[in-house]
Amino acid sequence: MKCPVLVLCAVFAVSLHLCAETPSVTAQPNTVYVGADGKFETPPDTALIQFNISSQADTAKEAYDLASKQAEATRQVLRTNGVDPKSAEVGFFSVTPRYNWKDPKHKIVGYQVTTSVSVKLKDFSKIGPITQQLADASIGDSQSLSYILESTEEAKSKAVADAYRRARASAQSLANASGRTLGELSYASVDTYENVHVMAPMRTMKVGMMAEAAPAPTEEFSPQNVTVTAHVNALFSLK
Asked: H/E element holding 225?
């Protein structure tokens, strides 16, 4: 007498914040298909400072010259703090005319030149001095700081391992509940994501405007961990 064929297909979602689409898998007899999320938290290895260089003048050339001076001042701040200016990423310079909108003819009254600058730092102790010196030099009226993880391979591997453990545990629980034995892995798909923690934009006052020198905004604080998450879909055989 033949035993009835048993087809089990279950999907377990540990969290719902991942937006990966479940791949199309045809469930085979005597298999169990599960999905699970895993994560790994680790301190960031890079600080990213971003700000804009902006200048205004009566002519486009004058505005461009002022922006160029701010760019050179930025390079000097980086050199002073032991950072190679070549490591900074600068966007293209945009020139925008400024109009007198109260004038019916909307005459041009000046020009504005802007560009964006991004600086990556491995040494977090340089964040405070650089942001303060940029403010003292009147470079950028606002700065944003974020912490990122550039070396992600190890973190991704650990997040995937965590997701797989959860997926296998779910499959094992279902196999036990059905009186079956969990077999080998026959299929798997993996998606990984990195969650970057961004601090709010900072505005740094000039030292001369303060009654006494205040600590840098980031002093004595620890950067938030970067969370790398993974989603694993796995198909196991059932014995």
From this structure: none
Same domain, 156 and 179: yes
Torsion sign over Cα 211, 217, 219, 220: positive
- Domain ranges, residue 180: 1-44+152-197+228-239
Q: What pLDDT is stored for residue 189 in this prediction?
A: 93
Q: Are residues 161 and 111 in the same domain?
A: no
Position 221 in a domain: no
Whether the predicted model's global pTM rises above the 0.70 cut: no
Q: Quick check: 178 and 58 in contact, CB under 8 A?
A: no
Give the tens place of pLDDT for each residue, 9-46.
333 333 334 344 555 666 678 999 999 999 999 999 99
On whether the CB atoms of residues 53 and 115 are closer than 8 A, the answer is: yes
Same domain, 116 and 175: no
Residue 52 CB coordination number (10 Å): 16
Domains held by the chain: number: 2
DSSP 10: -
SS3 152: coil
